[in-house]
Amino acid sequence: MPFLPAWIPVSVAIVLSAMPNSLYMFHVKRQERIMKTLLSTLFLVISMISTCQASEKAVNEVLDSVHHSAAKANAEHYFSLFSADAVFIGTDASEVWTVSEFKDYAMPHFNKGTGWTYHPYNRHVYFSDDGDVAWFDELLRNDKLGITRGTGVLEKKEGNWKVMQYHLAIPVPNAIAGDVADQIKAIEKGGH
């Protein structure tokens, strides 16, 4: 009987040893193919998990950098993290800005050395099937506004993640949502 690989269980080896040599070799080769397929699949899964973790880390670094740059009033770095065709949506219904429009709003603050500080926590990042688009939601703490929520989309362009859309919102607790809605309606009607 030919040499048996160490990974073949003893019970299988006993059965195989009673078979004609050609049948025995067929089963050994089959077991080797199965093992190679399993190992290849395992390697692929590990690679995919590793790639996903690396992408999530990169997206988190970009988002953390967005917040850090804003807090430091570092306009050059801040806007370099956005795609040229990005959109920023603020807390007011009128605040839907292209990057150029958002710069017009932000630069007077940044030029004075004042930005805005939001401390992110509880972030969730999701990816498209091809791994080139990510979307997220995060809660943020701000001294003036309290808890806010950021949501948005990033796209991987030429190997770099860029913010395509960022939406800052103020979550309203359900217990006071009616009162807040009434205040908004009053402002819309012109009454304060």
TrEMBL record:
Q: Which UniProt keywords apply?
A: Membrane, Transmembrane, Transmembrane helix
> Transmembrane segments in this chain: where?
6-26
Q: Which InterPro entries match?
A: NTF2-like_dom_sf, SnoaL-like
- Which residue numbers delimit the SnoaL-like domain? 59-173
Protein name in the entry: SnoaL-like domain-containing protein
Native species of this protein?
Answer: Alteromonas halophila
Q: What is the lineage of its organism?
A: Bacteria, Pseudomonadati, Pseudomonadota, Gammaproteobacteria, Alteromonadales
